[in-house]
Write a structure and sequence with these properties.
Helix content is 23%, strand content 36%. The chain has helices at residues 25-41, 45-50, 126-134, and strands at residues 3-9, 53-54, 57-64, 73-81, 87-96, 101-111, 113-114. Strands 1-4-5-6-3 form a 5-stranded antiparallel sheet, covered by helices on one side. A two-stranded antiparallel ribbon has the order 2-7. β5 (87-96) and β6 (101-111) form a beta hairpin.
């Protein structure tokens, strides 16, 4: 399984007056994890774009376990989940770095669309199949 880990601190603007991270920011943390994964495995949004593709999210799920607070350092683990269909699935785990406690988990599903007319690709694009072969993902 391909995965990536990213450490980052909770920023001041992500916390409410009580110092607790607003729930919507966890989705942004998932995005940070996807970006880091993409940089590590040559699977970034610019790589898709260069191949005439966009990859909109069609499903997103998040389970909250424990709140993060301003100043906490988190570890975001992003894992690619292989799938035979023409879609990309990521699983996420966010841990409080100091204690290794799981604070949130979730998943996202993205599909392939043509950047010119946003038509859906029902078959995996060659770019994606070549990427899976390179990283021995099936």
């Amino acid at each position: 399984m391909l995965s990536d880990e990213l450490q980052m601190a909770v920023r001041f603007n992500e916390a409410d007056p009580l110092g607790i991270v607003w729930h919507g920011h966890y989705v942004r943390y998932f995005e940070d994890g996807r970006e880091s994964f993409g940089m590590k495995y040559n699977f970034s949004y610019l790589d898709f774009y260069r191949n005439g593709l966009a990859v909109p999210i069609v499903s997103l799920q998040c389970d909250y376990k424990k709140p993060l607070k301003y100043g906490d350092v988190m570890r975001i683990v992003t894992t690619f989940e292989p799938c035979a269909a023409a879609k990309i699935i990521f699983r996420y785990q966010i841990f409080e770095n100091e204690t290794s406690e799981l604070v949130a988990s979730g998943s996202s599903t993205q599909v392939f669309v043509d950047i010119r007319n946003f038509s859906l690709h029902l078959i995996s694009p060659d770019f994606f199949e070549q990427w899976k072969t390179k990283w021995e993902v099936r």
